[in-house]
Amino acid sequence: MKIAIVGGGVAGVFLAIRIKEGYPSFSVTIFEKNSDILKKLLVTGNGHCNYANLGSTIGKYHNDEFANNLLKQFTPQDIVQTFDRWGVHPEIVNDLVYPVSNSAASVALILKKQLHKLDVTILCEQPMLDYQKKDDQYLVVTEKGSYAFDKIVFAAGGACYPQLGTDGSIYNILEKHHYKITPLSPSLSPLKVKENTKRISGQRTKCLVSLVFQEEVVYQESGELLFKDDGLSGIVILNMSQKINMLPNKDQVKIVLNLAPNNRITNKDNYLEYVNPKIADYLVSNQLDINNLVFSFKDFYEPKVAEVSHGGVALSEVNDSLESTKEKDVYFCGEILDVDGMCGGFNLMFAFASAEKVKKSIGG
Ligand SMILES: Cc1cc2nc3c(=O)[nH]c(=O)nc-3n(C[C@H](O)[C@H](O)[C@H](O)COP(=O)(O)OP(=O)(O)OC[C@H]3O[C@@H](n4cnc5c(N)ncnc54)[C@H](O)[C@@H]3O)c2cc1C
Q: CA 79, 305, 290: angle at the middle one, nearest 5?
């Protein structure tokens, strides 16, 4: 059995190792556009690689039921154990799982060692340009030639962070093959707001952030926020972006900050007790309420600063085995699918759980 994996990212590499562990006689080839595999893994978790989360996974995903169904079959604990067996030992901080080495680069090297040991073929700087059906096989077409395989797995990621290979061009190829791609937008992205935030750009503060849609609070989270020239950032804001992507009418979205959540402050002279002088001055001079600082959503930041894509290959295009409903022996896993998660290890976990499902489907 000859298997092509398009994309040497997190899902593709995990899948290659798991296939070879389960079915050593299969031949596995990874096609990667970049000069090396696993480039995105290196930047995850600020270079520390938050690869799993042992807390609840419910409500953490767009297309939550689909993602959770896969995570029931290959659980966060399974992921941690699998990595532990390969030599990536877990360090757990408030449910977030990091490698003991605290280094994404160590994780990448350990995965590469596994690929080498298991004799996976890796073809870098060979983007798949197209594919064709030929008799019972598929031809993967690259600039350097066409290669025949029994099965193809698309693990080519989404349309964000194009600087690391995921420029979304894979979706143009799939659209030519009549796959439905749901609209793409940046997720886990800073947010641009209509109000002017330039004066407090670079300032950080702890706060309670509420996402208000059509006058109702639909999501709340506490944490540190960073003001930018024209918007807001920080993990709480990245998570808000994931929730905003799921709302139908973005014009009616407000982001409301409470910068002193445990106190109702009526006297503006007391603002300094809760925020730094720059933020206090901004609030006072603009006559803003420290407990109810309202921003109107304008847009997401550009894809090159967003961690994941919202949208992708529509879930109606795959069956429960993650095999295409259009073409036999074609599979999808990872961010290429229309699933995206919140910050905290959920996106890597989806990449692993979906790859594990494809491994089982291919092996029968
Ligand atoms: C800055 C940053 C920090 C992040 N931190 C975390 C974190 O801590 N925890 C977490 O859970 N998630 C994190 N994520 C998200 C996570 O990295 C992704 O969700 C995950 O990498 C998706 O895995 P994937 O294999 O589907 O796609 P990718 O890892 O993006 O891999 C896809 C690969 O396919 C290749 N490719 C694309 N088109 C082609 C083609 N035509 N032919 C051949 N190859 C192709 C690309 O070059 C790429 O190498 C972070 C993302 C970013 C950008």
A: 100
Q: How confident is the model at residue 364 (pLDDT cuts 50, 70, 90)?
A: confident
Cα–Cα distance list, 198 to 7, 110, 203, 237, 310 (Å): 39, 43, 10, 17, 28
Rounded to an integer, what distance in angstroms lies between the CA atom of residue 89 and that of residue 309?
29
d(CA 319, CA 191): 34
Within 8 A by CB and 6+ apart from 181, the residues are 171, 174, 175, 311, 312, 313, 314
H/E stretch holding 122: strand 121-123
Atom of ligand 1 nearest to the CA of 49: 8
User: What domains appear along the chain, each with residue ranges and CATH number?
Assistant: 2-185+304-363 (3.50.50.60), 191-300 (no CATH)
Six-digit token pair at 195?
Answer: 């109000």
- Closest residue CA from atom 51 of ligand 1: 307
- 225 CA from centroid of ligand 1 (Å): 25
Helix (H) or strand (E) holding 249: none
Q: And the tokens for 260?
A: 């002193």
Structure tokens of 154?
């698309």
Task: Write out the two tokens for 183.
Answer: 């609209």
Amino acid at 200: I
pLDDT band at 317 (very low <50, low <70, confident <90, very high): very high
| Rounded distance from Cα 9 to ligand 1 centre (Å) | 5
Residues whose beta carbon lies within 6 Å of some atom of ligand 1:
6-12, 31-34, 39-40, 43-45, 50, 127-128, 155-157, 161, 165-166, 170, 307-308, 334-336, 345-348, 351
- pLDDT of res. 147: 97
pLDDT digits (tens, 9 = 90+) for 165-205: 999 999 999 999 999 999 999 999 999 999 999 999 999 99
- Model confidence, pTM: 0.97
Q: Which amino acid is it at 8?
A: G
pLDDT digits (tens, 9 = 90+) for 19-28: 999 999 999 9
